[in-house]
Every structure is written in structure tokens, then in C-alpha cells.
Design brief:
The chain is elongated. It has a five-stranded antiparallel beta sheet. A four-stranded mixed beta sheet has the order 1-9-8-7. It is of the alpha+beta class. The protein contains 18 helices and 14 strands.
């Protein structure tokens, strides 16, 4: 073997190493975790800062990598063809193609990409100064490719919107939760935060029929009884009717160190905050924070009182149900046997569906409202109907509203539930 052929082999080995470098760099920048880089940057790591800066210009970075990788692979193919023609004659070209293909696949693509995938941040930081230099050298080519990309996007009407939808974010949280990257509690908190901005005031409020409110003309004794029975710290105050709420009475203002205050209710109540029932709850939260209040009155389309929404209601949706020393445990679902339940009808329809793992499409928000809709009349004690294998009977009513129901699961419901579990297991 001549010295020239030895030189060619050395050059081919160097080109394979360069091909491996470009392949690993591409995978590293594609797989790196920017949050980890930002953590390193806060600790003063300048290499991490350069790496993050390059990752933000991924299009130019990718063009540089592809240009470099293609130049290296073409040069490798040409030199190896010359080498094998010298060594093997006419069949050298075919052997060269086979050998270089295997070498590039193993040592220039698969192996370096596998290594870079295992430690993307570390390799990206190692590669950053070199690729940054190449990025500067190949600036004219990157500019031309950027214009070509814009032309293609315009010709084919490509949509450049890469923002994730709430549904995609929820699916992503589910995936990382299943992978064990985040705990179940953290996953639930993230899902609540994603769904938070889609909820409206009407979805989580306390309806006017369930309000604990007092008239401005009520006696102090009557107001004290409402505070004692409801155990709420804030109560709406109305004048003449519940549709004319004029203030909010705070428990701490009503009681002093010596007992019930002597002040007039009008003097100690705070002005109410009014919102419409279709307003998003994140906007309600901002308004409550801005006004330094804890309760807002929700109005219907006629300007009447639809219900109230509190700071606690909003926080419940974000972090889960809150508990304090004044709260009483409320058993909405009482399981009497494997197929018999007594249920407080004041719950939301969604809560009922989640408990029995079923889907119900309805415009009704409350469970009691859905029962009324199913009966198609004002409910009375003893009314009953069946829904998808569930025998539902009204046990009691209050002011024409269902207050408690009996739910009996039939064999059809149990069989349907078992079939769904088997289908899910197979899937």
C-alpha cells in the first residue's frame, strides 16, 4: 500500500469522525432540555448560555449541520471510490459504495446519535463553540436557505403555527405522568392549570337557590344565625330581593371582641363585585385580587342574581378542594351496597359522571337540573326513570328542586362497565 493510499484512509477516517460529529450535534440540539440549560446559566455556565442561544436559532443551526454533513459525506464517498479503484480495479466502485454505506450508518449516524440522545445537554455544550464558528462561516448559505424556505412556505401555503393546543398540552402531561417524570399530584395540578382558563363563572358558582344571604333589614340575631348555620365567612346582603345585592358582610366585621357589633350593617358591609356568568374564572380571579375581595356576585342575562363565586371556588379548580377548620365533611355519595347509592343532588353533573365513570352530554350543569330535564316536569318524591342501566329515583325535593336521589345499578350497567374495561385492556 502506497503512502498516498494510507493518506486517503486517514482522511476517510477523519471524515467519518466529522460525520459522526454533525449527526450527534443534530440529535443533541433536538433532544436537549432548555430548562436544564437555564438552570446551568443561573449558576454562571457560559457554555450553557451559548448552547441555549444556538438552540433558539434552530433553523440556521440545522442548515449548518446539513451543509457540513453533506460536504463530509460526499468527500468521503469520492475519496473512498478513488481508493478502492486503485486497490481493486473495476469492481472497486461497487465495493466502495457498500463499505462506505455500512461505515456511515454505523459510525456516522446510528452510534453517534445514540450517544448524543443519552446526554444531549452535555454533548450540545461540547459542540456549541465549533458549530457556532461554522454557523458564522456559512452565514451566506444559511441566508439563501432561509429565503428558499420562505418561498416554499408561500408556494405550498404551509402553516407555521407551532403553538400547542390545550388538548395537546393535556395529552403531553398525561404522557410524562405515565412515564413517571412527574408525580400524579403534580400532573393533576398541571392539568387543572391548563383547563383553568376555559372555565366560566357559571361552571363553578353557588346558585342563587343555594345562597346563604341576609336582608339589610334583618335583625342582628337573624344574621348571626345565618353565619352560624352556613359557617361562611362572607355573606351577601340584599335590599328587598336577592336580585338586588348591595353589599358583602364579613364575619370578622360583624363580630367584635365583645360580641356582635353595634354598628349598622350598611356601615360595615363592603361594596359587591359584579360579573356576568359567561366571564372566564381567570378574569374573575384577577378582578378579586385587584379589588382585594373574596366574593363576586354573578349576574344573569337580565341583570338578576344568578349566584356567587368566591376566591375559594376558583382556587378549588386550580389546586383541588380546599379544607379549613370551619369546613364540614359532606358525603355526596353514600354507598349502601354494591349496586345501591344515595346521592346528594346538589352536586355538579360532571362530578356524578366522574364517580360512575360515564359520559353524559347535556346542557345542564347541576345533577338536579339534569334529573329535572330527564323527567321533563317539576320533580316530586317518588319520580323515577332509567338511564343507560341506572335506575334513578327521587327520594326528596326542596323548593321544586331534587335534593336527594337513589341510584341503583342494573345488570346492564355492570355488564357495560365490564365490557369497557375488557376493551381498554385489549387496547
Amino acid at each position: 500500500m502506497t503512502s498516498g493510499q494510507i493518506t486517503q484512509i486517514i482522511v476517510i477516517v477523519a471524515l467519518v469522525a466529522m460525520s459522526a460529529y454533525f449527526s450527534a450535534t443534530e440529535t443533541a440540539f433536538l433532544s436537549l432540555n432548555k430548562t436544564r440549560l437555564k438552570t446551568l446559566i443561573e449558576k454562571g455556565n457560559k457554555r450553557a448560555a451559548l448552547t441555549l442561544e444556538l438552540s433558539e436559532k434552530y433553523d440556521n443551526l440545522l442548515s449548518t449541520i446539513l451543509i457540513g454533513n453533506n460536504i463530509v459525506n460526499i468527500a468521503m464517498s469520492s475519496i473512498s471510490t478513488i481508493l478502492f479503484l486503485d486497490l481493486l480495479g473495476d469492481m472497486g466502485a461497487s465495493v466502495s459504495t457498500a463499505v462506505i454505506t455500512v461505515v456511515v450508518l454505523i459510525f456516522g449516524e446510528i452510534s453517534p446519535k445514540s450517544i448524543a440522545k443519552e446526554c444531549p445537554e452535555k454533548f450540545a455544550m461540547f459542540s456549541a463553540p465549533i458549530i457556532n464558528f461554522l454557523l458564522i462561516v456559512l452565514t451566506p448559505f444559511n441566508f439563501l436557505f432561509a429565503q428558499w424556505k420562505k418561498l416554499l412556505a408561500k408556494l405550498f401555503s404551509l402553516d407555521g403555527d407551532t403553538k400547542m393546543s390545550p388538548e395537546e398540552l393535556l395529552m403531553l402531561v398525561e404522557e410524562v405522568q405515565q412515564d413517571g417524570t412527574i408525580a400524579k399530584a403534580e400532573g393533576e395540578l398541571l392539568k387543572n392549570a391548563i383547563e383553568f382558563s376555559d372555565l366560566e363563572a357559571k361552571d363553578i358558582l353557588t346558585h342563587r337557590l343555594d345562597l346563604a344571604a341576609v336582608a339589610v333589614t334583618d335583625s342582628k340575631e337573624a344574621i348571626a344565625n345565618v353565619f352560624a348555620e352556613s359557617k361562611f365567612s362572607r355573606i351577601p346582603v340584599y335590599d328587598d330581593s336577592i336580585d338586588n345585592i348591595i353589599g358583602v358582610l364579613n364575619h370578622k366585621d360583624f363580630y367584635t371582641s365583645t360580641g356582635v357589633t353595634d354598628a349598622d350593617i350598611r356601615d360595615i358591609m363592603t361594596p359587591p363585585i359584579f360579573v356576568i356568568k359567561e366571564v372566564k374564572i381567570d378574569l374573575v380571579l384577577r378582578e378579586l385580587q385587584k379589588k382585594k375581595s373574596h366574593l363576586a356576585v354573578v349576574l344573569d342575562e337580565y341583570g338578576g342574581t344568578y349566584g356567587v363565586i368566591t376566591m375559594e371556588d376558583i382556587l378549588d379548580e386550580l389546586v383541588g378542594e380546599l379544607w379549613d377548620e370551619t369546613s364540614e365533611e359532606n358525603e355526596h355519595f353514600k354507598k349502601l351496597s354494591d349496586d345501591l347509592y344515595h346521592i346528594n343532588a346538589s352536586i355538579d353533573l360532571v362530578e356524578f359522571c366522574e364517580y360512575f365513570e360515564i359520559d353524559i352530554e347535556s346542557e345542564m350543569v347541576s345533577f338536579s337540573g339534569w334529573i329535572t330535564d330527564q323527567l321533563e316536569k317539576i320533580p316530586t318524591t317518588g319520580d323515577h326513570f332509567e338511564y343507560e342501566g341506572m335506575a334513578i329515583r327521587v327520594l326528596s325535593t326542596d323548593s321544586h328542586r331534587v335534593s336527594e336521589v337513589e341510584v341503583r345499578l342494573t345488570e346492564d350497567f355492570k355488564k357495560s362497565a365490564e365490557d369497557e374495561k375488557e376493551t381498554a385492556a385489549i387496547g
